Amino acid sequence: MLDLALDENDDINTLNGDFICVESTYQHQRQLLLNGKGSFKQNPTICVGIYSYLDDEGLQNVLRAINIEFTRDGMKVASLALTPNGQINSNAYYP
Q: 20, 29, 41, 48: least CB-packed within 10 angstroms?
């Protein structure tokens, strides 16, 4: 899936005054993880809000929320796991 490229501050990236289009699956996943419910006026019920799970005892809750939101966004989730050091490993893509 192609979309506008975002820089490290999540601003639209340009080159010589033109927008840049890139493969955007990772950007979409990042936005869904970092933003919380209500962050997007167009669809206030999307997003995971990963920071809200920091004090959560059950890691299955965050994995379930990620799976739901990725699937809801149209991705096929082949695998999803949380490493012992807290990294999220996902194999999710737009078909």
A: 41
**pLDDT value, residue 59:** 79
Which of 22-36, 47-61, 68-82 is predicted with the least confidence, judged by mean pLDDT? Answer: 47-61
By the 10 Å C-beta count (0-12 exposed, 13-18 middle, 19+ buried), 40 is classed as: middle
3-class SS of residue 80: strand
Give DSSP secondary structure letters for 22-71. EE-HHHHHHHHHHSPTTS-TT-TT----GGGGTT-S-HHHHHHHHHHHHH
77: part of which helix (H) or strand (E)? strand 76-82
Q: What is the pLDDT, as a whole number, of residue 81?
A: 93
**Residues 6 or more apart from 93 whose CB is under 8 A from it?**
25, 75, 76, 78
Give the residue carrying structure tokens 């379930």: 64
d(CA 53, CA 39): 17
